[in-house]
Predict the 3D structure of the following.
Amino acid sequence: MRLVGLTGGIASGKSTIAARLSELGAVHIDADRLAREIVEPGSPVLGRIAAALGDELLQPDGTLDRAALSARVFADPGALETLNAITHPAVRALSEQRIERAKAEDPDAVVVYDVPLLVEAKVQMPWDLIVVAEAPAETRIGRMIELRGMTRAQAEQRIARQASDAERRAVADVVIDTGGTLEHTIAQVDELWARLRSADQASSRG
């Protein structure tokens, strides 16, 4: 099994890269999806969040009020630290389960773990490769305005709160430029896949 960490800032094109790698045969594990799973109604993690940050974060049907939570942690760094202390270990444990399952099903699998905050959260795993999606800030701002309905100020604020390009590049083995055409991005992903598969073949021969 080869474990690939995929990261990048908001609107940097991670989803496009992950989708193409999945098409080519990789197992895609999405940290954001895992983070939603651990706070499903009735889950222990959701109970700890409500106990630590307030029952008002729960909606009448028992689901997490994500808008209220976002507003709370955006305005209160202490609340964000508390939230992360509860959720990060749970996401880590679930991700390790999914990775082990993929390995058991196919010892030769390429597992792509998509972690938006890999740098910010200092996610340490036995990576074979770390891939960073990168696009110019103006391109990302345009995507957030057009595709996510944000204002320019909101988009700039989101970028400012995340790691810089330099910080991501410092941990990267591969940087994929998503600032051009879709075809250009896909070509880079295909080249990455060929590299991963040739490395597998070389190790099997060895």
Remarks:
- The longest helix spans residues 77-105.
- The chain has a mean pLDDT of 93.
- The longest strand covers residues 2-8.
- The radius of gyration is 18 Å.
